[in-house]
Amino acid sequence: MKKLNIILLFLLLFISCSNEDAGNLATDDVTLECSPEKVETSGAGGVYTLDVTCSDSEWTALASDDCSSWIAVKVAGSLSSKGTATVTVSANTSKDSRNGSVIIKSGAKRVVIPVTQGAPMSVSQREIYSNSRGENFTLSVVTTGDWSVTFNDSWIKVEKKDSKTVSVTTEPNESKTSRKGTLDIVSGAEKITVSVAQESAEDREINTPEGYRLVWHDEFNEGATLGIGWTHEVQKPGWVNNELQEYVNGSVSGKRVTELVDGKLNINCFKASDGKIYSGRVYANVNTGWLYGYFEARIMLPKGKGTWPAFWMMPVGNNYSTNPWPGCGEIDIMEEVGVDANIVSSSIHCAAYNHTINTQKTASRNIGTAESEFHVYACEWTPDYLKFFVDGTELMTFKNEGSGKNVWPFTYAFYPILNLAWGGDWGGYKGVDESALPITMKVDYVRVFQKK
């Protein structure tokens, strides 16, 4: 009996092994083929179709785990002997090429389709800023395929030097307005547009601070009144700082509060026939302003007890009900009061440092001829500091020490302001002398530079 049991056990083992072999044989008999056998794509990515043939009744396809974030697979006809796998490769946003795979499977059968994607096309510069004299620039192009360059502006000349570089030349700009153009670099489905900006002829006399480029300026050489880009404030006396003047836009008693004369902006303050005092306050690009930069103006100040001219900046679009002064910040590049003739000052105001609590950060200097000669007043504003200059000599530095908004609210765009006040808390702190009227603040130019 014991011998019989052993024989039966042997037979059961034999049958079990035979069935397992039969299953393996069935798997090995499955034919699974895919065409093409690999996918190669540029950095732009794309959509590719794999034709799948399977002798079994069912198959599927998927991206391997290591590339599922940038490869997507959609299967059609997976219950038929012939079908397709649509492979979508996302654009490569990294700096390097990358590899992945698509797995076609039926039961235990696997076919691996390698997917290779090249690095995205890159160009060494996407913005070109040219002076008005014309310049030559060399751009480096990195791409895995052939590329071409096109342009539509006659003042831009482009020459492909070799497989890696393109030469861009701007012709001299004789116009008093700046101009903009573009050029397109194309490789397969990839395209990079490079913007080209060239300043007006007037910038030939402009000394640009090292590391900066001119982004906006007004030399006041065209027309008789301020043009697009300037906004006049209109306010009654006492609007701020208990000042005595009324700010208007236009003429009163036949005299304008702002006018362009001999290539200068004149901001006039005068007593009109109605006995009121009128003056001008104007904003440059009030709706956009600039975040960081080098801001510069060349100005001759008026004389007289009661004058209060200023070149300063305030935040764009600020909601003073939710972000009131001084917490919103204020940048005073230049101020002077006529009773303290020729003493110019620079200041900043914020929640922690402002004149209402006698903590404002201010520096002043008697330059002797502020009311008889033109001087250049400037501010360099970076994420790390505000520096103020008179004729290129540093007057004050206020550093961002990283202690928060109460000390450094200067993290959004500001716009420049030019105004001539009469009297007020500071301008009239020793009274006013109306015999000084009319008075004029003369501005030769206003320029804004930003980092390259």
Automatic annotation (TrEMBL):
Keywords: Signal. Gene3D superfamilies: 2.60.120.200, Immunoglobulins. One of its GO terms (biological process) is carbohydrate metabolic process. One of its GO terms (molecular function) is hydrolase activity, hydrolyzing O-glycosyl compounds. InterPro entries: BACON, Beta-glucanase-like, ConA-like_dom_sf, Glycosyl_Hydrlase_16, Ig-like_fold. Residues 202-452 form the GH16 domain. Residues 1-22 form the signal peptide. Belongs to the glycosyl hydrolase 16 family. PANTHER family: GLYCOSIDE HYDROLASE FAMILY 16 PROTEIN, GLYCOSYL HYDROLASE-RELATED. This is GH16 domain-containing protein.
